[in-house]
């Protein structure tokens, strides 16, 4: 006999499929709050259809967006006004990152597809002195706190999907086309490796199965957000 929790999960999955919304875009405004009012060059890794890159362009002199998917990269370029200072390139991180330095580097729901420590080390080299790296990533639930956050997020996820799709409007397509890969690292593993690669990193679990990581080039003291 199917357990009640499993039935609830199936019901939530069905509801979420009918009322999709972009969990990553939910954090875009939060990302902007971590950044200066104005900055020079920015790099968005895993730029998808370009929503975050275009948002960064409201603050930046120049933005580069890179993604390994040529289809979504072409879509990003089509959606971007020629007057917007954003360039999209098909490239693989970490080795295909266009030469920096960058005052801002963002990476949303992409880092779990890449070699974690190696990528952070490469990003550190591409960041200008005083620059800021902001990551929104996925982690593998492991502890009681992780599972509690997941339990809290499930009904909130459904409610947010309903609010964003109410009125019978057709939801906007999500900003990625590639299949998502489950996160392999726990939050504790992410924090430990991030602190080794980027001393002074601020990391935090977030709702909707995400974590955030913020690092300022030149940071020396590890602190909690």
UniProtKB/TrEMBL annotation:
It holds the Pfam family Methyltransf_23. Keywords: Methyltransferase, S-adenosyl-L-methionine, Transferase. Signal peptide: none annotated. Its EC number is 2.1.-.-. One of its GO terms (molecular function) is methyltransferase activity. Gene3D superfamilies: Vaccinia Virus protein VP39 (3.40.50.150). InterPro entries: SAM-dependent_MTases_sf. GO terms for biological process: methylation. PANTHER family: METHYLTRANSFERASE (PTHR43464), UBIQUINONE BIOSYNTHESIS O-METHYLTRANSFERASE, MITOCHONDRIAL (PTHR43464:SF19). This is Class I SAM-dependent methyltransferase.
């Amino acid at each position: 006999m199917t357990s009640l929790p499993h039935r609830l999960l199936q019901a939530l999955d069905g509801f979420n499929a009918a009322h999709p919304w972009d969990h990553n875009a939910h954090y875009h405004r939060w990302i902007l709050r971590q950044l200066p009012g104005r900055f020079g060059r920015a790099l968005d890794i895993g730029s998808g259809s370009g929503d975050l890159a275009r948002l960064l362009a409201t603050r930046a002199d120049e933005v580069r967006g890179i993604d390994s998917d040529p289809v979504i990269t072409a879509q990003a370029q089509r959606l971007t006004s020629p007057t917007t200072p954003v360039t999209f390139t098909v490239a693989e991180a970490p080795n295909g990152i266009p030469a920096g330095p960058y005052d801002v580097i963002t990476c949303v729901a992409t880092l779990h597809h890449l070699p974690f420590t190696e990528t952070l080390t490469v990003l550190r080299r591409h960041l200008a002195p005083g620059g800021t790296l902001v990551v929104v990533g996925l982690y593998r639930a492991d502890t009681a706190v992780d599972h509690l956050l997941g339990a809290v997020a499930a009904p909130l996820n459904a409610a947010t999907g309903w609010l964003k799709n109410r009125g019978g409007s057709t939801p906007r397509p999500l900003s990625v086309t590639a299949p998502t890969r489950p996160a392999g690292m726990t939050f504790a593993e992410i924090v430990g490796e991030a602190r080794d690669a980027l001393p002074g990193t601020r990391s935090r679990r977030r709702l909707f199965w995400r974590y955030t990581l913020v690092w300022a080039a030149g940071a020396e003291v590890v602190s909690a957000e």
